[in-house]
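Forum: Protein Structure Q&A
Topic: Joint prediction for protein chains with partners

I've read a bunch of threads here and the consensus seems to be that you should model interacting components together rather than docking separate models afterwards. I'd like to see that in practice. Below is the full input, 525 residues plus whatever partners are listed. Could one of the regulars post the assembled result?
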Amino acid sequence: MASLALPARYRSSSVWVLYALGLLPGLYAFYQGVFGDLGADPVRTFEHLLGLWTLRFLCLGLAVTPIRDLFGVNLIAYRRALGLIAFYYVLAHFAVYLTLDRALVFSSILGDLLKRPYIMLGMAGLVMLTPLALTSNRWSIRKLGSRWNTLHKLAYPILLVAILHFVLSRKSLTLEPAFYIAVVTVLLGYRLVRPKLMERRRSRRAAASR
Amino acid sequence: MPAYRPPRIPASEITPQSLYLSRRGFIAGAAAGMALTGASGALAAPIATTPSTYKVNDKLTPKKDVTTYNNFYEFGVNKADPAQNSGDFKPTPWAITVGGMVAKPQVIDMEKIMAEIPMEERVYRMRCVEAWSMVIPWVGFPISAILDRVEPLGSAKYVAFETVVRPEQMPGQRGFFQALPWPYVEGLRLDEARHPLAILATGVYGETLPNQNGAPIRLVTPWKYGFKGIKSIVKITLTDKQPPSTWNISAPNEYGFYANVNPKVDHPRWSQATERRIGEGSGLFGGRTVDTLPFNGYGDEVASLYAGMDLKKFY
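Posted by a regular:
Agreed with the consensus. Here's the joint model:
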């Protein structure tokens, strides 16, 4: 397979570069927030930005396979980092919600959780993403074997609840959420057609080699 | 309710002392402003006001926040968009067509309004349906001043308002994906519109409205959610049927016609029990969340308008 990925000897350092670049927007926003540079409603802005970067990295993580299938570019070496960066963003997003947004008032947090579908969906996403982050090490992959693959299929429902959480938290459907709905639809829709696509490709290859 | 005494001196004859004393600074500031803005956009001009008893004692939201954190979808859906994208908007000249069930329908020129109707400063709380709030020193006048000129017929029960449609000056009104149907429309019951707290604002912070705040004239009903405050009004129509309102058309189960601030009636997707006060402290850790009050704290004045109504049903 043609690969545009870096030679192996640069790969591990490039992963660390990805972590650094990936977390930079969140760190920069935190810096802006501390120095009063995040506009009139800094808490809301920061909270939303962390959520949005979670969604972006989830999308990027789920784009690795279609990019490999369709364009022959193999970025699998970066997928764990993409997923973990999404996880770090969602942890920060959740922490800001608990502290700066809800000020640790648990009655209001519990009220939100029991009454608001978009909060439930967000929480469900966090709950599902946590075991994926915890099993993202080599030991778990080896230990879980094929069950690891099954477990990590949770990435699909996670992306689904993430986009619903995002859209439902808005006052109305505007261009930005519409864009992410389109991206998520393509990424998840691809999974539905992928088995057929792969099947056709395999039979074509088999025919060619005959 | 504080006793309401109509001002007797025409506003046009009054120069506030503070303004008089700072006239040199103003001239210098105006010159600097002209240099900055160049030819585009209208300059904020000071408006002479008479004092009003309608002042809340809360700390004012800084002018910077009032003029850069706005919902005005005609200029874009993000909070900073209206301030950034409204530079091409021309609020002068301007006229409002007032008609419908009235004895004297007429087109009222904005200059005439500014010259003939006394302007008051009203410091009001503003509660957005998105659970944030501000405290804003508006300049404006009771809607009654307009209604009296056109003489509503006995059959008129509602007042409908309409925002200007100018896709060439309002980027949010053009393009393939528009957030709302235009024109933005809103309405009040006639008795709500007649309430002395309901004003048409022509300024904020002592100056004419910036484009992003609804220049040159907008509605302010402080006991209702902010989306009732229709901006850049070109048409006022008296009618006997409840007029349509944009957000109600867009999502009827989420935004009602009345839209009275009510901590006990949640938005279907989020709580309305508390609100974040914009512009208090600076940065991430200075914010303040306060309890939302029924009718945004104006219950003593306006609750009687809704006596006997189920406010959970008429949200």
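Chain A has a mean pLDDT of 91.
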